[in-house]
Specification:
Number of domains: 3
Largest sheet: 5 strands, mixed
Strand order of the largest sheet: 5-4-3-6-9
Protein name: ROK family transcriptional regulator
Pfam family, one: ROK
Number of helices: 12
Number of strands: 14
Radius of gyration: 22 Å
CATH topology of the largest domain: Nucleotidyltransferase, domain 5
Helix content: 25-40%
CATH architecture of the largest domain: 2-Layer Sandwich
Length: 409
């Protein structure tokens, strides 16, 4: 519930305050009760009551005592941190470039992970069977009590209907029209959620900004992730703007003079000129008239190899040109939004030549109108790690916890 636009009951206010405190402990481990109170605007007494409940529930632990800060008259403060043994979450990354499953704890530590079969099943029930088998294997390996597994998050590239969890569009055609979080919940008896990878990645970057003591992603952010295709979404004050639209649409913006044949069959789409799909076709020497490649034919290991060779002159030149073009088009896409920052993630963010090309294109485009480009933040968070943070966000920080008591208000 957004307390800024709705009336709040005592229970809603309690849950809101509890989530504020826990978010701060997760995002900035080592904070004291006094520091948390000052940061989020609650009294020391309220934060003490909330942390007591969290400690009793096994979600938070106390650390060492440290000297108090200025104005605290020498009082020693006890550091707080999330208890990794207090809760666990399942993450499922279902994208063309990353198909893995993991178990992560409340402290953000990945306890175990498993790759899904390299050959993607054509039948949806078989895919669900593979994911369920992988999750059960990880739970058996880690021996985490089932009651401590609070939720399961699935991320895919495309569009998701927020109310139903139905995947309206996905680069993995086997998912389209399906509700993987619902089906996995039925099989595993673990609450589930599904989200687009763009929104997932944006939330993960907001967590990182909070942890690093940054600006908490204030204002508007343009979120760009580039793999074979590219997705673009928007965040405001660290939260995704969930429109239900297909984040991949920007990849089909036509590029003047573009000749590459896109996965959609058209010529000159942005993803065919400036994303992994087009880069790999040029590196392989395919002509613009070569038959298009379908999503199901794309191989993640080929893209990873190209990123690993990004320093080689021929590869670097191709990636730099692609990044330059994307930078120019991002100026067009972001001109109305006027974002404070552009977040860049996905496999291609690991190629320095591609990133440098984007910065060059952005700078040149902004120079035409005498403005400075927004800073480009390059993420080191991969899709699976982003999905892990989504699970923590959804099942600890957005939903009421059963441990909440009246004292937390």
């Amino acid at each position: 519930m957004d307390l800024r636009s709705h009336g709040a009951s005592v229970a809603a206010l309690r849950d809101h305050n509890l989530a504020l405190v826990l978010r701060r402990i997760i995002g900035a481990p080592g904070s004291s009760r006094t520091e948390i109170a000052a940061r989020i605007g609650l009294t020391d007494a309220a934060v003490s009551r909330i942390t007591r409940d969290l400690i009793e529930a096994g979600l938070v632990r106390e650390g060492k005592e440290v000297p108090g800060g200025p104005g605290q008259r020498g009082r020693r403060q006890v550091q707080l941190a999330p208890d990794g043994n207090g809760a666990a979450f399942v993450a499922v990354s279902l994208t063309i470039s990353d198909r893995r499953v993991s178990i992560v704890d409340l402290a953000g530590r990945r306890r175990a992970e498993a790759a899904l079969p390299l050959a993607l099943p054509r039948q949806y029930p078989r895919l669900v069977d593979d994911v369920v088998a992988a999750i059960r294997g990880l739970l058996a390996r880690t021996r985490i009590p089932r009651q401590r597994v609070l939720g399961l998050a699935v991320a895919t590239a495309g569009a998701v209907e927020q109310g139903s969890g139905r995947v309206a569009a996905s680069s993995l055609s086997v998912l389209e029209g399906r509700s993987p979080s619902v089906d996995l919940t039925e099989r595993l008896r673990i609450p589930g959620v599904v989200e687009t990878i763009g929104n997932t990645f944006g939330l993960a970057e907001a967590h990182r900004a909070m942890r690093d003591g940054g600006d908490d992603m204030a204002g508007a952010s343009l979120v760009v992730h580039v793999a074979f295709g590219l997705g673009i979404s928007v965040m405001l004050d660290g939260q995704p703007i969930r429109t239900g639209g297909d984040e991949r649409t920007a990849g089909h913006v036509p590029v003047a003079g573009g000749t590459g044949r896109c996965v959609c069959g058209a010529r000159g789409c942005l993803m065919a000129e400036a994303a992994g799909y087009g880069i790999l076709r040029r590196l392989s020497g395919l002509s613009a008239d070569a038959p298009r490649q379908g999503w199901d034919e794309m191989r993640p290991e080929v893209l990873r190899d190209a990123v690993a060779r990004a320093a080689d002159p021929p590869v670097a030149e191709t990636m730099s040109a692609a990044g330059d073009l994307l930078g120019e088009r991002l100026f067009d896409i972001a001109s109305v939004l006027a974002p404070r920052r552009i977040l860049l993630g996905g496999p291609l963010a690991g190629a320095p030549a591609f990133v440098a090309g984007i910065e060059k294109g952005l700078s040149r485009a902004h120079a035409r109108v005498g403005t400075k480009p927004p800073p480009l933040r390059v993420s080191v968070i991969d899709y699976l790690q982003a999905t892990e943070l989504l699970a923590i966000e959804e099942f600890v920080l957005r939903r009421p916890l059963a441990l909440a008591t009246e004292s937390a208000a």
